[in-house]
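Folding problem:
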Amino acid sequence: MKKSFKKALAVFVLTITVISTAGIIISHFEQAKEAVQVVSERVLVPGGQSVGIQMDVKGVLVVGLEEIETQTTVVSPGYDAGVQIGDILISVNGEKVYYAHEVTEAVKKAMSADTSVPLELKIMRKDEEHTLNVRPVKDNETGEYKIGIWVKEKIAGIGTLTFYDPRSNVFAALGHGIYESKTGTLLAAGDGNLLRTEVKSIKEGKVGTPGEIRGIFYGNEEPIGKVLLNSQLGIYSKGTDFDDFKLAQPMVMATRDQVKEGDAYILTTINGDRVERFDVKITRINRQDKPDSKGMEIEVTDDRLISYSGGIVQGMSGSPIIQNNRIVGAITHVFVNNPTKGYGIFVEWMVEEGEKLTNN
């Protein structure tokens, strides 16, 4: 971590300590109580940087089913066996598979031993494990045995960094999970990286058509952190490289009951790698008693952001929301029929989610 960041954090903590000491010296009980409460509050470093999320899917994700033409018929072995798009393939005949080529090799190995015995597939579907038996068939064109499924092992996309938590050494981004688009299945994170990203352009959001940030990843050899958790509340990684990474000044985290309707601002990146501030208004608050990514509704009021991007676009998920000099949440969704409006998550939920990495 940069010395300047450490120094800033030290000054911030020192300032709070002085306030606490002053409160104790003053005999007024309420002032002392308030001072002690300030010391106990969580301190985060707000983000706003556009980041690349590159993640291996844990297991192999089924993204398609195909028909195989044999010498006598056309058949889809995977479909007939009950495989569905969105399933995560864990093993073939007891051998765990993590990559697409391992599935192909497992089928070849089994067929070279005995073509009459079906393969045993173990798959995960909506957090439940299933065992299916599939019988490979010989492709008339290539002469290879196939089971008729298309799989992928990696996903990549662009989001926004929400905060860095110095206490747990955790970076948090997005504020919502990464799901398989066709089935809505939350993907389990395998190996992955949080990467620096440069925004090249923005496709403007319009009514009925969400806009999007377009950028490029760089610094693949020196990732910001290792992605360890993909949950319904965001992407979480352990920090690995702070050098030359632009970190803001520390800021106190707001609890859910401290968030109010009214003026606020977001931090996000719309050009290059420069984090900028844009005005928004928190228009509605959902007082939640359990974690969810739609804790508040916000509306962009900044004319410059509206004219540039139409408001909120895909890739801004995770942009921190600041109110009364506290980080209160992050953007998570845009209203398709009104890109100036969207949902936000309470940052308190994200901090608790990130602590799972430390606890585990």
